[in-house]
Amino acid sequence: MKNRVNHIVFYGTLCEIDVRKALKISDSLEFVSICSVSGSLYNLGEYPGLILGTNSIITAQLYLIKNPSCLHILDDYEEYNPNDLKNSLYIRKMIELPDFDCFAWIYEYNQKVSPKQLIVNENWGK
Length: 126
Prior knowledge:
Elements: E1 7-10, H1 17-22, E2 29-43, E3 48-65, H2 70-77, E4 90-97, E5 102-109
Antiparallel strand pairs: 1-3, 2-3, 4-5
């Protein structure tokens, strides 16, 4: 395993260029490819939440992290606090992407979801 994770996966609002521009992280990332992740998406209103490790596959976007300082901005955006996991909205986790021979960060939803919120087409916004 690599010592440093150099990639990140987006599956929701962060797939939108306008959101990345507003966060001023566009220059810190470079699009690599569309990718697949094992998990299920849940409709949380204005954004989706991912639960990893289900029998479903979601479509996402893989980015190379050119400037790791953008992770602090993304952590704030996703309401992830590594010192307070219980109260974090999302948890940043490392996943393996065998098709790309790399590991990547991804934000997993950290709250309860209802089966009624499941997004059946596994692609946010479609």
